[in-house]
Each structure stands twice: as structure tokens, then as C-alpha cells.
Amino acid sequence: MTIAYYLQQTADVKPPVTNEMAVLQLARERQLLRARDLAQAGLPTVALTRLVSAGELERVGRGLYSLPGQAITEHHSLAEVAIRVPRGVVCLLSALRVHGIGTQAPHEVWLAIPHRAPVPRFAQPAIRVVRMSGASLVEGIDRHRIDGVEVPVFNAAKTIADCFKFRNKVGLDVALEALRDGWSQRKVTMDDLWRYAAIGRVANVMRPYLESVAAP
Asked: Do 55 and 148 fall within a single domain?
């Protein structure tokens, strides 16, 4: 066997993929990583500790990891909450922010959850829970990809109707601003607004305001 032949053969042999390498690849694909993701992929969760100690992963939240210096968006907190509360839906002020409607900049993540679901308990990111049920909880949900995570967010028309329904929580001025801004930006249609007003049982409340924005 010549040296040239040996070098050619060894060059074709790829090094084995270690658990740490597989975890890093998973982190590149998902951006936000949980121990549960490793378990589902058949990888040992101890690899997370090793990678954090080596500086190859960062702990960005309780049970959440990402690559160091990972570029994140302004809606990163929504992705964190979506991972931790899979039955929740981003709503009201946080949903308005996602849709670019109004001037609200909430410091909490507004989240709709089922009536009998336990209130999530974690310090960061801060959340504001709103209880919903039936069609109000399952209708009008868009799926946004945020920092590698699929985040359920109520669509613009549903969010505006919800602002009127929960005007005691967000303020009638916020609901009116959302309606005017969403309509002027053509992010909603009158049919959709009426539909979600009916679902939220606020059609009578919204009627004069809808007629006002629709007037020529």
C-alpha cells in the first residue's frame, strides 16, 4: 500500500458525528432549543450542559438555549412564550404589535389561554393572561415564524374585535386607535371585522365605530 493510496483512503473517512455536534446542528435549525427537543431527537440532555460550559451554547431563558450571538427579532419574547405555553395564543396589545397596528409597545406578552388552563408561572418574559373559550379561542389564528419558532397569533381583525371585547383591560382609546389604524392600512376588511365582532359578541358595541370608519 503506497502512502498516496493510504492518504486518499483516510481523506474519504468522515469523523463520527458526536452528540454535541448533533445538538449544535439542531440549534442552528431551530434557533431556540429545549431539552425536550433533544429527547425527541434521541440525544442526551447532558450535552446541553457541556456545550454551555464550552461556550458553544447560551442559556437564554429557563430551559431555553441558543447559539451565541444568535440574531433575534424584537418579538423574541413571543417565541419564548410559545414554546413554554403551547396552548396559548398571542393576543390584544402583543398581537397589535406583531401586525404593526397602533402605537402600543407592551412590556408584557399578552396571551389568551383556555378558561380552565393553569396560569403559566415564570419570571421572564412577563406575561398578561386573558381567558377565552370556544370560537373566541380557536378562530382567527395566524401562524408566524419568529426566531425559528411557530407562534400562534390572532389575526388583525380578530385582534381589533378583541380589543373592544376587553376594552376594560386595554382601554377604549386603544381599541379605537387599532380600528382606525388597521382600516387605514387596509390590514382588515369590513366583512372580517363584523365576523369577529359577532364571535366576540361585541357587534352592537362596535357597530357605530365600524359605520364611522366605513363612511365615505
From this structure: no
